[in-house]
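User: For a benchmark we're assembling, each entry needs the component sequences followed by a predicted structure for the full assembly. Here are entry 17's components. Please fill in the structure.
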Amino acid sequence: MEKIKELEFEKSLTKFTSAIERLENQQKSTQKDNRLPITKLQQELKEKTKEIYSNITPWQIVQIARHPQRPHTMDYINTIMEDFYELHGDRIHSDDPAIVAGIGKFNSRTIVFVGHQKGKNIEENIAINFGMAHPEGYRKALRVMKLAEKFKFPVITFIDTPGAYPHIQAEERNQALAIAQNLYEMAFLKTPIISIVIGEGGSGGALGIGVSDKILMLEYSIYSVISPEGCASILWKDQKAVEQASQALKLTASDLLKLGLIDVIIPEPLGAAHRNPSEAIKIVGSYIQKHIELLSTIPISEIVNTRYKKYRNIGLVLSEETEE
Amino acid sequence: MFFRKKKYIKLEPKETREIKKELWQKCPECGKLIYEGKLKENFKICPYCGNHFRFKTNEWLSLLIDNKFEEYDANLISGDPLDFKAVKSYTEKIKEEIKSTGLKEALTYGLAKINTFDVILSILDSSFIMGSMGSVVGEKFVRGCEKAIEKKIPFISICGGGGGARMYEGMFSLMQMVKTSQVVGKLKENNILYISILTDPTMGGIAASFAFLGDIIIAEPKALIGFAGPRVIEQTIKQKLPHGFQKSEFLYKHGMIDEIISRDKLKEKIIKILSIFYQ
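Assistant: Structure for entry 17:
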């Protein structure tokens, strides 16, 4: 197994993991029975992980959400789908690898998926642009969702992006319109839509495939109007104020559930999804199944009406009389 | 022996004439000084280079309206859904903005008479927290559209929203993008004409929602319009952006808008469009 890259605040776990590794290697090479001390250390590791994760700050959650070893969209697709067929291109300009889309079988039901794709390392990330989509990515997503609508297949979107790509070419092809068009079309799409924030939900670039009937968030994912770094430099004029900015923005799953802006938190395995990707994927699969089933019992006209009303009513508006 | 030639720093002579701020304005585009009275007379367009200075809500009203504007929901003000604390709290920020702009929020809407036409007019003013969209801006835009549907009259939006989605309201702001985009679908269902007029600046979450969804999109000359801010793009590509990038003329060239209209011609153009659709 690939070694887990520990985050700064997880460093105190290293002494346990390396001690376990040493004992395991020794056991292999000398046939010495180390099972007892290994079990003991594993127990201690578990306790320590629990301790760290029970007292976690929003900025630490931001770092977990961006962890390169967290499962990404295609890890989910490859595991939970029995069979899938990826679709490519926006039919106009090109194929944007930062958004993947396709159709497949999930628990013997045909579903359509769309998701931002991040890489596990620098090489992968450069190839797919760190999950930052161009307009053609959003247009591909829309084309595939329209296909879902035609056959009434449910759409699952996986959100995981720092944001839409800030670039000359993206602007030339009207990034703003590409996102606006998706918001407009997804609001009325006549098939159920479930979005799952699996890592980083970065502003308009995330929302561009995020209009849905149910918004689910993984326990250690984030969803925010601006990155904590951006917010810190604008409002605190200090890049180092990321801790305060992460706190102020209320970008964690638990904050957003309290505010009524998302529907469900999907729990992650102990020590977050990067420690146990296969378990995390399994849990997400079970939540998708549950919510597809729930939505499948509701007539589509009612689903679309409820979706419209949900977004229509978001916001806190006061009128001056009630203030005084 | 070597003697190093002493380097001199060249100093530009200081501006000798004292510029009285209230009387003279410096054009940010061409740098020329313009007499304030002259600027006002000229629709706040620079007489030398044609740069459009930003208009405020009341200036738009006096430019476009023929003796009638009935404002709706003037009493709506922002709450603080996140209890947002930065160097300044959101509540403090709002108070300051209300005081300095004389507006209660960035967006004003109401029933307006333009020539013989009744329309719902919505104005997003960039002087109020950069014209950014929080819950109130989203709500008022949507109510404006709903009013247009109820009265079966056209909807005209003037948009100066450089701040995009307002970060003080976090995800509440981001979700206003969906709210304001989907209501445009309702305008379509009800055959209501939606004219979107983009002014300097229209960026981020405003551009990526209602601003670009107009049936007809008009921009003022040289307005900055786009998704990502130019500074963010420069940091990403690590080079200077070409001159005129994300300006109205650039957008027109790339087929993103129908026309660029200078402010002094805007009203007659709106009347022309309305006449073609409705007479």
